[in-house]
Amino acid sequence: GDVLVFAAASLKTALDQVAADWREETGKQVTISYAGSSSLARQIEQGAPADLFISASSEWMDYLQSADLITAGTRRDLLGNRLVMVAHGVEVARIELDAGTDLAGMLGDERLAMALVDSVPAGVYGKQALMSLGQWDAVSSKVAQTDNVRAALALVSSGEAPLGIVYASDAVADAGVSVVAVFAQESHAPIIYPAAVTANSTSVDAQAFLEALSGPGAAEVFRAQGFEPLVGQGDG
Amino acid sequence: MSLSVRFAHRFDGFALDVAFEAPSGVTALFGRSGSGKTTVVNAVAGLLRPDNGHLQLDETVLFDAERKISVPVHQRRLGYVFQEGRLFPHLSVRQNLLYGRWFAACGVGADFDHVVEMLGIGDLLQRQPGRLSGGEKQRVAIGRALLANPRLLLMDEPLAALDEERKAEILPYLERLRVETDVPVLYVSHSMAEVARLATTLVLMDAGRVIRSGPAADMLSDPENVPALGVRAAGASLNATVAAQEEDGLTRLQASAGPLFLPRVDAPPGTRLSIRILAQDVILSRARPEGLSALNMLPVTVTAVRLGDGPGAIIQLQAGEDLMLARITRRSALALQLEPGTECFAIIKSVAVAQSDVGGAW
Amino acid sequence: MSLSVRFAHRFDGFALDVAFEAPSGVTALFGRSGSGKTTVVNAVAGLLRPDNGHLQLDETVLFDAERKISVPVHQRRLGYVFQEGRLFPHLSVRQNLLYGRWFAACGVGADFDHVVEMLGIGDLLQRQPGRLSGGEKQRVAIGRALLANPRLLLMDEPLAALDEERKAEILPYLERLRVETDVPVLYVSHSMAEVARLATTLVLMDAGRVIRSGPAADMLSDPENVPALGVRAAGASLNATVAAQEEDGLTRLQASAGPLFLPRVDAPPGTRLSIRILAQDVILSRARPEGLSALNMLPVTVTAVRLGDGPGAIIQLQAGEDLMLARITRRSALALQLEPGTECFAIIKSVAVAQSDVGGAW
Amino acid sequence: MLSLKVSFWATLLSLPLGVAVAYLLARYEFWGKQALNGLVHLPLILPPVVTGYLLLLTFGRRGAVGAFLEQAFGLVFAFRWTGAALAAAVMAFPLMVRAIRLAIEAVDPKLEQAASTLGASRPWVFATVTLPLILPGVIAGAILAFAKAMGEFGATITFVSNIPGQTQTLPSAIYSFLQVPGGDAKAMQLVLIAVAIALLALVLSEWLGRAVARRIAGS
Amino acid sequence: MLSLKVSFWATLLSLPLGVAVAYLLARYEFWGKQALNGLVHLPLILPPVVTGYLLLLTFGRRGAVGAFLEQAFGLVFAFRWTGAALAAAVMAFPLMVRAIRLAIEAVDPKLEQAASTLGASRPWVFATVTLPLILPGVIAGAILAFAKAMGEFGATITFVSNIPGQTQTLPSAIYSFLQVPGGDAKAMQLVLIAVAIALLALVLSEWLGRAVARRIAGS
Ligand SMILES: Nc1ncnc2c1ncn2[C@@H]1O[C@H](COP(=O)(O)OP(=O)(O)OP(=O)(O)O)[C@@H](O)[C@H]1O
Ligand SMILES: Nc1ncnc2c1ncn2[C@@H]1O[C@H](COP(=O)(O)OP(=O)(O)OP(=O)(O)O)[C@@H](O)[C@H]1O
Ligand SMILES: [Mg+2]
Ligand SMILES: [Mg+2]
Questions:
Q1: Domains in chain E: how many in total?
Q2: What ipTM score was computed for the predicted complex, to two decimals?
Q3: Does the pTM of the predicted model rise above 0.95?
């Protein structure tokens, strides 16, 4: 292919669409390898032939940047996302989430599904949000952690857990859950999907595809999948 | 008890079709290697399901192809001594011996200590079978079958791996079993001496068929059977009663034709014994010879002369109430002018009668 | 070629300590079950590494504990017939037979077709060993060893599972092997008849030790050995030359003591044969008896009288240039007043000499 | 440690079923044999996540079997260590069955026949002859299963998620550490612990298997 | 299909090594035996991610072995399908070795002895007696390895990533679909394909193993 992209797995649907559109437009082939951000970053560290890296969190991008493995000046914050609380069932009544909400009581002896709260970004953000709402101490013992957001969603979707905290983009397509609350942006660190051209990229088209990702056509696709395009908010 | 066997079975390249009756006592299957003896025993045991036929032990139908009856192996209450041992490698000799006991309907059965002593395996009880010699394995296998308290004993060349002395110790035991219990025994052997000693019934097999069968005494003394049995195995049994134990170590017996002296037979006076005399051990004389080292001379009458194709001849003799066979050269038969009705003397060396040819009660 | 064996080994519960020489020809190991025969053979084969000792085949040291020499099994060029067959289950009979050929230094070796025919396994060549009878397996095992073109043959009870007829077919072949090649053969057997027929050297074992060893002819005709060999196995060999084939099927031979008539011996006039005569088949008479069915009467002189504890006696006789043994009752020995120097006649029935007792050249 | 407990019970409880299934596959011909065989191997073929998901659908509280078990026996798998054990057992099952089946196929049916002539019915033959003879194979199967259970995590975390102190097994802890930059050192520490435990079990089982085999060979 | 190719080569190429290691472990006592045994089992115990990571560190372009192999033989594992095969082979290796080892341990040493008395040296004994007799075990080992390789994904995706057409195996494709909303249906399709292929291989191997076993039993 002309461009090899290493991207966080949660972007698959949207990125596949954007890549297809771009190929129609330019005739250039984009190949995308989806995996966990941590795996991808380590592979790039070990000399993977990736041209472009799109991470699900800033951490792993920072990690590569500090090792000079991305081309200076190409890093930009591509997308944002929102953190939501989902409940099992269709059209469940919304919950007012604030310090006074008895979240623990609502759970009873059931579980709150989240991604790993110390390592997987969605889990980390969720924990921050619950802490800022003063809920963490009450519910921490009732959290069921999974290795990725999708598994947490599956727990709610199958009814195994009544509530879960996932990305808005995840909640979009699952008919078995309803979004009952959206966490305030300020309640957790910003959810950002940064992108950058890697340092040893040999592709002349990498920069062009990165531009296309920031373009309006791509923005529409991303938005449809529940992401928030952050065009022009990059740091470089 | 009595076992009735009738079945047919095909392997590719070999077809078996047999029928015979095995009354209580020992029924010997005799035949060349590959003639189907083991296959017959396996069918009786239930390890082989014949294509068709019928097996019955007394009133119990063990197998019937048409009525689709086949009693499971473990309910047939067998003691099977396999041609190849088949000891359980993970159990000690003692555990092997007692294996059948776990399942045996409680009953008197063979006595453990007695069997162990007879088989000479007392020192081996704690060993694993992997550390036994060939003959030791076979002895344990015999013990295992005897101790299972069986209703039917199947023995496939049980003594082939054993030396003569050990055989001589085990044979009387099997004989006693034959006499004291009415467990039918199917006994496969290549050794005519064993067969002649033990068998009450003899089944001759060849190429998957029974060529002759019947009571062993009749079969063995019938000159017609000599070719099938092999000339060196032919012979007949005299019935005799122990008369006295003489002090030079001989035992005097009384047969219907006269006295017989044999090396010490351990039986009290009055015991009735059956003594097998091989045709080739008998010398005939027209006159009563003098000054011979042979002690036994019985007056006999020739009842049949059968000249073979070869240099030999089989002479059937009436010795008192019993029949005897003598195998001599054709030349001697002609020289002595033997024909039915001729009176002569049968000379038998005392030492030619092996201990293993002196059988139990008749 | 000649094999020299000397070693000691301990299992727990059993100690072995043996030393003997096996010159070319057949060396028979004879002893009770569990006396250590298989263990000796395994040590010679290299399958068991003795605690100490020395094994040598001609100039080649096969094993030396002190010099830490041990020739690997596959370089010893053996043909080993195991007590339990050990055919390769995944190979056909033909492939089993030819297995050794793959590795044999090219050489003349035994002829495939000939061995197959002798063993009667021509019909089985395409079979897998799992579908053979016990005796068939053993025959294939014998063939496999013979065809490996060995420098040393080890046979652990090779004929035990076979019927007399088959034995009678295989024995002459082994005998020919003994005569025609100088491959030493270590032969384990329980059958004195086999041993007497085949063995050039006899090693008597008991409880892990060699109790006597030496040339078979001497060992068998020595009255002192009778207890060890068993009374029924004692006997000696007469050397005789085939004189004529007579038309009634008998063969006339000339021994140094006189003529001998035997049932047809397939050998041209002039052939020198060794004929084993069992002590128990000999009858003694002071006078030359008349009118007897026995054809052979040799004039002999008593050289030794050995009265046993039991009812029997062993008489050693000089028959021309050969020694013979006769086993009679003690009572007869006294009645005939036999003592060294006594002249008398030995009566031997023609038919008492089995085909298997007529051996090859001497 | 939880991982140990989970693996131990997963192995122990699946062992009888493993032996039974292996025996069935080794010694009988029946309709649907290939289907059963396939089913047993399924967890090996499927990505663990899928297996975990299927377990969730079946044994979850709302799952058909799960709901029944909860009602009937009060047995709950979801979010309990029992669920982790179930997931580990399912994942390890193919390995266990294969090992035991191979062992069964190596047992000489002639010995089983000999036992039956001595009066042992099929179950007794199995208990007194087959089982002792396949013991080394059973041990090998168990150790494979134990090792696999110790290392299993994909299906486990999907099925019962990761509740520290209840369902967090060693592998999922290791996974967590690997998800954050700089967690490598901590992860490797845990890896060493896991390896040490598993190796210990391995050596133990080797030794046990050898002892059993030696007993059988009698040398 | 890439997955097939990867699994096939992974199985085929690791087979000789698997047989060799199994033979070593079954028939010899040597210093470091337990260490080798442990090493072989390691991929089973470690979470696949860790295995993948260790592979990346060793066989990656910057890894010690990887760099050497590239220089010396031009053999590159990193981010090629060969790497996927390597990962699959490593993950499947313990299963293969165990199965083969069990088979070897079930071979009666007496038959091997018989072969050596007939002049066969150790390698020949192995080739003409041991190997044919363990064939059912080898087939079982291979099929286990193949199934595992078809299902393997944790180590693969960590080692060689998930590049469509180059290193994307069926399981990693399944994984990608499972990571996004609405991908389940697609994922299930792929699962079905994977299952079908693996089952086919399974049935084939059963049949093959049976034929070999029947030939040996001669019935
Ligand atoms: N599974 C089988 N398939 C084909 N042929 C077989 C099978 N089992 C036995 N045979 C053949 O059937 C015949 C009879 O075998 P069987 O074992 O009954 O002989 P046997 O009389 O016991 O011989 P032996 O005295 O040598 O043990 C033999 O020719 C043998 O080759
Ligand atoms: N591995 C072993 N461990 C302990 N004892 C053993 C072992 N192998 C054989 N023995 C014992 O050594 C003795 C000699 O065994 P060996 O097999 O040499 O006897 P054998 O003379 O061949 O007997 P047979 O005629 O019964 O085959 C026996 O008492 C046997 O129990
Ligand atoms: Mg037989
Ligand atoms: Mg022996």
A1: 1
A2: 0.82
A3: no
